[in-house]
Write a structure and sequence with these properties.
Layout: H1 4-24, H2 54-66, H3 73-86, E1 90-94, H4 97-107, E2 123-127, H5 132-140, E3 144-148, H6 162-165, E4 171-177, H7 186-196, E5 199-203, E6 211-212, E7 215-216, E8 223-227, E9 240-244, H8 248-258, H9 306-315, H10 319-336, E10 344-346, E11 352-355, E12 360-362, E13 369-370, E14 376-380, H11 388-397, H12 414-422, E15 428-429, H13 434-442, E16 443-446, H14 454-471
Parallel strand pairs: 2-3, 2-4, 3-15, 4-5, 5-8
Antiparallel strand pairs: 1-9, 6-7, 6-13, 8-9, 10-14, 11-12, 14-16
Length: 472
């Protein structure tokens, strides 16, 4: 009879063999799979998707064999690796990037932060164009989002409006995302937050691997968020994380809100980490009430599974490779579509002064920014002989995946329009939002993710240049 160790080894070896057969023959995003079998016009060019190998499947099966299921040893190991990768104090896994944003904002409302705790009606500065769950947690916590406009060249906040958005005694935080992986002006925004002693929540969901100077995005904010949904830089299937730069009280608060709101910080399956489980007296509970059942916040249960973390431990070892491919795919598209510049504008990294036909140019003294791009933005010019919608429909017909910049100008979305009508004081808007409207009306993006092959990229370039040429 084989030992359990030998059986496990055999199961995992067979798992990898089966994964290579079933996924590797047809999926170009499967690492180590078959050569490119892409047929232009017949096969879809996705805008994003999972990129994985047999190791991820083996890791997931191995975790199932351990049958811990809930967040446990694999989760702890992945959290340590992610924090190390970003250069932050701690990372805490959650079930999605949207939940990570919710937890980060909720943590700042805890009365344990004393005079720095966010109170209902306090204001949080954000931007108008982006993904709704960067902004929703502000409203969900009865806070007031203050919208400033986006720059359609970088897609990020027009930082010149920060001072106008600030209100003494009311403004308490800034919450923004690095749009499509392009870091926002971290120098201006961190200096603004330091000047007024504001919290900074940095939504890094679309930017894992991006650099601002020589520092990773996701390491600047007091709290930062990650998403591991399949289109993102790494995937756990579903999943996300909250990263804590250096304030360990914030780690305790995020963990509490993530884990039912409980006061206890024992991980699953462990008791009495504080060595006084029955020695607490909090609220109006009797002294000695079990600390595992004392609740200091109105929390949630939004943890992922240990199986997901096992996949993540393999994926995170691929981050440098994935980021390099995203950058190269972006530049391949930019070079290939240069002839379309008469009718299409292209995004520039924050602080970049231009594009020389091969790479970005920078003014002397400018902070170099190196995005790990989430997508490739096409901004159709107002005087172009075609519209964004016409281009999007053409790409669809040619089976080339494309997306709008998420919610566009969120202030035009039904949920936000309805809220403003019902509660006019629940949001505040600075300026006319011309940039956010430009992005909404003229922008769409295509993929740069590591699963794209050279043949796919060549086809995308050919389709777009032919379309523009025929319309000219």
């Amino acid at each position: 009879m084989k030992s359990p160790e030998a059986l496990r080894k055999q199961i995992l070896e067979l798992t990898e063999e089966l994964a290579s057969i079933t996924h590797g023959q047809e999926n170009p995003a499967f690492i180590g799979g078959a050569d490119d079998l892409f047929i232009p016009g017949e096969h879809t060019v996705p805008y994003a998707g999972r990129v994985f190998g047999s190791e991820e499947i083996s890791a997931a099966v191995g975790s199932v064999l351990d049958f811990w299921l809930t967040l446990g040893p694999e989760g702890e190991a992945f959290e340590r690796k992610l924090a190390e990768c970003l250069g932050v104090k701690r990372s805490l896994l959650v079930n999605s990037g949207s939940s990570a944003n919710l937890l980060a904002m909720s943590a700042l409302t805890s009365n344990r932060l004393k005079e720095r705790a966010l109170q209902p009606g306090d204001e949080v500065i954000t931007v108008a164009a982006g993904f709704p769950t960067t902004v929703a947690p502000i409203l969900q916590n009865r806070l007031v989002p203050v919208f400033i406009d986006n720059d359609p060249i970088t897609l990020n906040a027009k930082v010149e409006y920060l001072e106008e958005a600030y209100q003494e005694g009311k403004t308490k935080a800034v919450m923004m995302a690095h749009t499509l992986g392009n870091p926002f002006d971290l120098k201006a925004i961190t200096e603004f937050c330091e000047k007024y002693n504001l919290w900074l929540i940095e939504d890094n969901c679309d930017a894992l691997g991006s650099l601002y100077g020589d520092q990773m995005t996701g390491s600047f904010g007091d709290l930062t968020s990650q998403s591991f949904y399949p289109p993102h830089h790494l995937t756990l299937g579903e999943g996300g994380a909250v990263n804590i730069r250096d304030n360990m009280l914030l780690k305790v608060l995020v963990e509490s809100f993530r884990d039912w709101g409980r006061d206890c910080w024992c991980p699953s399956g462990k008791d009495n980490t504080c060595c006084k489980r029955f020695g607490w007296q909090l609220g109006e509970l009797p002294k000695g009430y079990d600390h595992k059942y004392i609740y200091s916040h109105f929390g949630y249960n939004i943890k992922p599974l240990d199986i997901q973390a096992a996949i993540g431990r393999v994926q995170i070892e691929r981050l440098d490779e994935f980021s390099a491919l995203r950058r190269e795919n972006w530049k391949t598209l930019r070079r290939g579509l240069d002839s379309c510049s008469e009718f299409i504008d292209f995004v520039l990294p924050t602080h970049a002064s231009g594009w020389d036909g091969n790479d970005f140019t920078w003014d002397e003294g400018a902070t170099r920014v190196d995005p790990s791009w989430f997508g490739f933005m096409l901004m159709v010019k107002e005087d172009a002989p075609f519209t964004k919608v016409e281009l999007a429909k053409h790409l669809d017909e040619k089976k080339i995946g494309n997306r709008m910049l998420f919610g566009g100008n969120l202030l035009r979305q039904p949920a936000f329009v309805d809220r403003m009508k019902a509660e006019p004081d629940s949001m505040r808007v600075i300026g006319e939002m011309a940039g956010a409207d430009e992005i909404m009306n003229r922008a769409l993006f295509i993929g740069v993710y590591p699963g794209l092959t050279s043949a796919m990229l060549e086809y995308v370039i050919e389709v777009i240049t032919d379309f523009v040429g025929q319309k000219h």
